[in-house]
Request: fold
Amino acid sequence: MKRIVVLVSGRGSNMTALADRCTAEGWPARLVGVVSSRPGAVALEAAAGRGIATAVVDARGYADRRDFDAALAGVVERLEPDLVVLAGFMRILGADFVARFAGRMLNVHPSLLPSFTGLHTHQRAIDAGCTVAGATVHFVTAELDHGPIVVQGVVPLRPGDDAATLAARVLAVEHVMLPLAVRWFVEDRLRIEGQRVRQLDGAAQQILAGGL
Reply:
């Protein structure tokens, strides 16, 4: 059984989608811990209600990012993860942390990378006049939002969309694609080949939402 640790900062809707699919579909894995950078995050309550161990490493308690990363790494490593998943984790992790979990850490980012790395992705897509938007699950590397791509989900950008309506549409596809990517990982169905990720069964590595 592969051991999964999820890092969160807020509501944790991607974490709950992941946990519920793992249980419902009988993956050879289990979520052994949810670690939040913010005390009181709704995700902690959602995890506890599913019998998942929780912990908090409060980012506000560390003046230096390296100290925060070291404390977080200690908590995560005690859970002995095979995979670390960043699901709405609102901290930039340093190179040392990333190196500890290289090749076994996934992030879900709310844009079609390599476009719109960083924050405010939905408004930036609208302002750029994009006709589609989406999200990306990728392996984490030291360069922010630039790791090898596992799967992308594409949604239409509709007339009248604002950042909130687009975010809701993108989040819905994230709830499908993140569990899919994690299942592929725990079932050993992915291989990193340089900057590319190959799905070894030949499954499509893109999800097109309705209307496309």
Remarks:
- The two ends are 37 Å apart (CA to CA).
- Strands lie at 2-8, 29-36, 54-56, 83-86, 105-109, 132-139, 149-156, 190-193, 196-199, 206-208.
- The mean pLDDT is 97.
